[in-house]
Predict the 3D structure of the following.
Amino acid sequence: MIVTMALIINGEHIDDEIIEAEFRQIKGHYERTLQIACCERDPEFRGMAKDNLVSRAILGQESRRRFPEVAEADVTARLTKLIDDAGGETQFYMNLGMAVKDEAIIRDNVAGGVRLDKTLQEIYAPEPVPTEAELRACYEANLKYYMTEEEIKASHITKSLQGAKSRQEVYQAMRDVRAQLLAGADFAKIAEEHRADEQQQIDLGWFKRGEFMEEFETIAFSMGESEISPVFNTQLGFHVCTVTGRKPSVARPFDEVKEDVKIRFLEEHRDKKFNAFLEELKATAKIEDTDPEEGANCGH
């Protein structure tokens, strides 16, 4: 089998199989997030794959130049942490897709990670000590990350299908209940009349997204206060609900999130230093792309 080399970075060859695997991973991510249809963005994804591989290659090369040797103790410590984080050695190797344990290959890869960590520590240093004004500016610029979650308070009337003659019978009964509510009947009174037993909740209290069944939340969070929902069903039966209170998403006070803001400030500092460092390496690297004008590949 002939292996072609589509990328050569400072003399280091990256074969097509590696590029294809990276391409598939990127495309799979966008397919899972429903951001693409078929092959419309394949050339873009292939370009992203090559750029990722170029970045990794030149970072690895620079790390080896700066730290040609790393202590075995550092490699062992990092490998031990990776295995622990994975939940054990078996799961660790399974996650890597390795059918057979090959510690020599793993340790070599982990040594690369140790070198990269040491390199990044060098380029990030010295880390700034942000002033209060800088932290407040960072807070204002990233306010969307410091918002409370929207909450609503709701009440509902529900009828299960248990013991019913038919699904249609229960559905029609709930339509009649809704008609009464739309005509002005008191929700709490009607709910009591149709309560199955003392255990069945009418007032559900305050809740956020993700705390109830998705079908229920989809309806409830789309409603305004005092609005009567259409009849809808979940695995528990048919429902009619009303929203009795709403707490909108608001910014959390600066003092409450100050430590989180500091972490973000330092992350932004590292991102800027890293991106500048990477661009410097790319500017001086010899990058040969033997197949730069690839068209869309619709193979699956």
Residues 148-247 form a domain with the Chitinase A; domain 3 fold (CATH 3.10.50.40). The longest helix spans residues 254-284. The two ends are 21 Å apart (CA to CA). The longest strand covers residues 237-247.
